[in-house]
C-alpha cells in the first residue's frame, strides 16, 4: 500500500495538515465564488425573461453573458467536486471491493486526475492564447480570452485538488469517499497506523 508512516507530531505531518487546510480554504472560497456566479446567472436570466415577456424587449447581451457565466460555473464546480469527491460516481460496484482494493482504486484515480489536469491546463493555455486573443464576444464586445481563461484555471485547480486528495490518501490513509484510516485490521498488510 502507498500510505506513509508519518508520526502525528512531526513537521511533515503538520506541513501536510497545513497544506490540506489551505486547500480546503481555497475550495470554500471557490464554492463561494461559484455561488456568486450562479446568483448573477439567475438574475440575468430572470431579467431577460421579464424583459422579453413583459416588455417585449430582449436584452442583446443577456444570452451571451448567461452562457459564459454557466461555463465558468460548471468548470469551476468540476474542480471543486474533484476535491470533495462529490461528483457523480457509481458506488455499487466500488463498495463490493475490499478496503485495500478501494484504496488502490482511489490512488490510481487521483493520479489519473493529476495527469488529466496537467493536460487540461496545457491545452487550456494554448487555446486561450491562440483563440482567445483573436475572437471577440459579439454582444459584449470583449476579447474571448476572458472567457477562455477558465479552461487553464480549471485544469490547474483539478491538478491541485486531485494532488491534495492523493496526499490525503497517502499521508492520512483516507479520502472523502472512504472516510476511514487503513489499518492492519483492514487486511492485506497496511502500513498506516
From TrEMBL:
Keywords, sorted A to Z: Cell inner membrane, Cell membrane, Membrane, Transmembrane, Transmembrane helix, Transport
Presence of the UniProt keyword Transmembrane in the record: yes
Primary subcellular site in the record, as a coarse category: membrane
Domain of life: Archaea
Alphabetical list of InterPro entries matching this protein: DctQ, TRAP_DctQ
GO cellular component: a single term: plasma membrane
Transmembrane segments: 33-55, 67-84, 105-125, 145-167
Membrane topology: Multi-pass membrane protein
Tripartite ATP-independent periplasmic transporters DctQ component domain span: 41-170
Subcellular location(s) of the protein: Cell inner membrane
Pfam annotation, one family: DctQ
Protein's UniProt name: TRAP transporter small permease
The species this protein was found in: Haloarcula nitratireducens
